[in-house]
């Protein structure tokens, strides 16, 4: 079974501070991990995927298979980063996404 | 690119009526479309997976006779909530994936269904 855990429902930081949104997963095979973001009154959109190893809007995430984690990090948070962040996992063959419950990030001025 | 639309964005109906929600991929051909349900302040729950020209695959606990899915073309999938009841009130979101970046789903804006 696929499971994604985001332990923090809410996370509040000040502008310029580092931010880390935690994500742990459970999957028996080789997972594909994603971070999706939903800004206020907007649709869900892909932020980054682990296979492309890219940095989007200053965010990075490293897949740690030993710890089964895929934490999202940014060294200096900006106010426009305030949004709901969902970690998601896809099985290797079915493309179905299992979402975590989400973390609401608030970046204060 | 990779835009997905949903129509309507909001619908209010009486209990017992059926409601159809459309999901369209506007600038790409969607190999697969997915339908999700999202309760207030909760995450997205996958309801079903729809491939063009074949029957939808429903997740455990989702009534296929209640939530009818038709994937008529590579750009259109519809979700019909049959004989809707107040407990069906929710936010329904579709997503689509194409052949390029096949592992990526592009999401529609969602449809707010309220059943009175």
Question: What report would you give on this structure?
Answer:
The complex is a heterodimer of chains A (109) and B (116). Chain A has 109 residues and is mostly beta strands. Chain A contains no helices and eleven strands. In chain A, the strands form three sheets. In chain A, strands 2, 5, 6, 9, 10 and 11 form a six-stranded mixed beta sheet that branches. In chain A, a hairpin with a 6-residue loop joins strand 9 and strand 10. Chain A is globular and about 40 Å long. Chain A starts with a strand and ends with a strand. In chain B, a hairpin with a 2-residue loop joins strand 7 and strand 8. Chain B has 116 residues and is mostly beta strands. Chain B is globular. Classes of the chains: A mainly beta (109), B mainly beta (116). Chains A and B meet through strand 5, strand 6 and strand 10 of A and strand 5, strand 9 and strand 10 of B.
Summarize the structure.
The complex is a heterodimer of chains A (109) and B (116). By secondary structure, chain A is mostly beta strands.
Features of this protein?
heterodimer; A: 109 residues; mainly beta; six-stranded mixed sheet; 44% strand; B: 116 residues; seven-stranded mixed sheet; four-stranded antiparallel sheet; 11 strands; 52% strand; globular
Give the SSE map:
The complex is a heterodimer of chains A (109) and B (116).
Chain A: E1 3-5, E2 10-14, E3 19-21, E4 24-26, E5 32-38, E6 45-49, E7 60-61, E8 72-74, E9 83-90, E10 97-99, E11 103-108
Parallel strand pairs in A: 2-11
Antiparallel strand pairs in A: 1-4, 3-8, 5-6, 5-9, 7-8, 9-10, 9-11
Chain B: E1 4-7, E2 10-13, E3 19-25, E4 32-38, E5 44-51, E6 57-58, E7 67-73, E8 76-81, E9 90-97, E10 106-107, E11 111-115
